[in-house]
Specification:
With 52 residues, this protein is mainly β. It is built from 1 helix and 6 strands. The strands form 2 sheets. Strands 3-6-5-4 form a 4-stranded mixed beta sheet, with no helix packed on it. A two-stranded antiparallel ribbon has the order 1-2.
Length: 52
């Protein structure tokens, strides 16, 4: 499922597996918050993703 765009706002991708997304950029970090797994990237925010 790809990210959606609503009125110019970027929405993160929701995916089944984050292993491949983590290796897209060297600044990507995996974070667990509230039972969900997120990929965050402060230098390039378009790589953000969520699992769960």
């Amino acid at each position: 499922m790809s990210g959606l765009q609503i009125k110019g706002l970027k929405i993160m991708k929701v995916v089944n597996s984050l292993k491949t997304l983590k290796s897209r950029d060297r600044n990507c970090k995996m974070v667990k918050r509230k039972g969900r797994v997120y990929i965050i990237n402060k230098t390039n925010p378009r790589f953000k993703a969520r699992q769960g």
